């Protein structure tokens, strides 16, 4: 199982596709491409019957490049990684961070595919996929892409827990540009599985991830903030920024939903926590969002009525 993060900070807990499913999808794609190639070649051959041999050879090379190589590149670009074979097998090509691929990714995959699939009859691609831990062929490695399975039962998906309400909006000025995608993935994997880990092991993992995040951002969390709560708050901040960016690009819809910081009371450190949750340390206050928050976080008053979040974070009283 591999958790991926899309460009708009949505977690996808999908499995990387393995060789059997990828081979079946490739066989379907190649069958379609070769049928189109033969059909176009017959039509062009009839139309170019009066041309000399050099012109016919040039047209043949152009057809090979346009149909057998250019065709799959165009299809993957326009369909965002879903060719006919991948659609039939429930597969999709995505970037390493889970986002949709673009033309440059499809171009590198197609160019490498001509060598490792067409010219070697798939031998190189099969060996590379078997050796790779995530089933990637050479084209995926050079393009920075991954083929994943989209058809996964809903019970396997893991929801990213929201941060404690007393930390929402506290890191709004944090510079996250230096945080690599690999670290985001590791943090999300921990947050979705932290309740399944031993308390000691989970705390150690959270501490290491928090230290690396602090090293990337240059700002340490306030004294007494649990490492897991800090990680959840920073991931939520990134999600909120991406959501505001998307809404702004769609016409400035995020302007009316911008978070408004308001002070909230904080429980003393001696208040017990619910199982697996956190309470605010003594002296910690933070702005929270009023109204409908971005990123799917419930409104502050609804959180107060519910008495806690679905992830077990205990809100301040």
Fill in the keyword field for this structure.
single chain, 317 residues, mainly alpha, two-stranded antiparallel ribbon, two-stranded antiparallel sheet, 10 helices, 49% helix, 6% strand, disordered C terminus
How would you summarize this macromolecular structure in one to three sentences?
The chain is mainly alpha-helical. It has helices spanning about 20-45, 55-80, 85-90, 105-120, 125-130, 140-145, 180-195, 200-215, 225-250, 300-305; strands at about 1-5, 10-15, 90-95, 145-150.
Explain the overall architecture.
Strand 1 (2-5) and strand 2 (11-14) form a beta hairpin. Helix 2 (53-78) packs across helix 4 (103-119). This protein starts with a strand and ends in an 11-residue tail after the last helix. The protein has helices spanning 19-47, 53-78, 84-89, 103-119, 123-131, 138-143, 181-193, 199-217, 227-249, 300-306, and strands at residues 2-5, 11-14, 91-95, 145-149. The chain is elongated, with a radius of gyration of 25 Å. The chain is built from ten helices and four strands. It is mainly alpha-helical and 317 residues long. A two-stranded antiparallel sheet has the order 1-2. Residues 1-12, 153-157, 252-276 and 286-317 have low confidence and may be disordered.
């Amino acid at each position: 199982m591999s958790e991926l993060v899309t460009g708009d900070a949505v977690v996808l807990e999908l499995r990387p596709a393995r060789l059997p499913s990828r081979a079946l999808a490739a066989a379907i794609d190649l069958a379609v491409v070769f049928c189109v190639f033969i059909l176009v070649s017959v039509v062009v051959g009839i139309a170019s019957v009066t041309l000399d041999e050099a012109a016919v050879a040039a047209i043949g090379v152009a057809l090979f490049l346009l149909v057998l190589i250019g065709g799959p590149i165009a299809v993957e670009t326009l369909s965002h990684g879903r060719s006919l074979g991948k659609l039939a097998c429930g597969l999709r090509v995505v970037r390493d961070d889970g986002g949709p691929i673009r033309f440059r990714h499809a171009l590198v995959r197609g160019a490498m595919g001509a060598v490792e699939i067409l010219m070697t009859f798939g031998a190189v691609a099969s060996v590379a996929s078997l050796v790779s831990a995530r089933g990637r062929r050479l084209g995926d490695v050079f393009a920075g892409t991954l083929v994943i399975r989209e058809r996964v039962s809903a019970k396997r998906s893991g929801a990213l827990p929201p941060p404690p309400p007393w930390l929402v909006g506290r890191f709004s000025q944090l510079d996250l540009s230096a945080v690599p995608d690999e670290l985001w993935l590791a943090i999300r994997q921990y947050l979705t599985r932290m309740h399944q880990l031993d308390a000691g092991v989970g705390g150690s993992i959270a501490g290491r991830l928090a230290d690396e995040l602090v090293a990337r951002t240059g700002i340490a969390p306030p004294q007494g903030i649990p490492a897991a709560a800090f990680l959840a708050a920073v991931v939520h901040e990134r999600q909120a920024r991406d959501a505001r960016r998307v809404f702004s690009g769609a016409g400035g819809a995020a302007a009316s939903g911008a978070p408004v910081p308001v002070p909230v009371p904080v429980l003393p450190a001696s208040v017990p926590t619910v199982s697996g949750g956190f309470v605010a340390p003594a002296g910690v206050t933070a702005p929270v969002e009023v109204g409908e928050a971005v990123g799917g976080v419930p409104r502050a008053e609804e959180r107060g009525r519910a008495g806690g979040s679905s992830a077990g974070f205990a809100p301040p009283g």
